[in-house]
Amino acid sequence: MSIKKKKELSPTQQEYQQFAQEREPKRPIVLNCIKAFIVGGLICTFGQLLQMFFIKYFHFSKESAGNPAIAVIIIITVLLTGLGVFDHIAQFAGAGTVIPITGFANTIASAAIEHRSEGYVLGVGGNMFKLAGPVIVYGVFSAFVVSLVVISLRALGVM
Fold this sequence. Notes:
Elements: H1 3-8, H2 11-23, H3 29-58, H4 66-83, H5 85-93, H6 100-114, H7 120-155
Helix pairs in contact: 3-4, 4-6, 6-7
């Protein structure tokens, strides 16, 4: 809490703030970081193994094998979210499951599941895209800005 807000609190409120801070459980930050690193690394390793699987058994090129591997990871994440398993994994791993693909798939699937009682169009579809829309818009806009920078640098002969 900022110093300015502490001055506005009454003595009783300040005493309660101190009381609450003393009893707040300490978080094991290092352990949480290790768990996130391991789980995030396992997810990425699984993705790499999938990519190698598609290269070896389906004769994809290195460049094109990533697309089906990502699709499989998205499908697995959505299934695990629907079954309630992904929540337990996320509870254990914390930030380790927020790898862009799995985190985004979980967010979309969770919104769809949460609002299914409102109907498929307005509940599932509407709330699913309420979350996905800003992410997609930001991604497209970012790609546009980066491409403008790259084209400008190439035109100037820097790249």
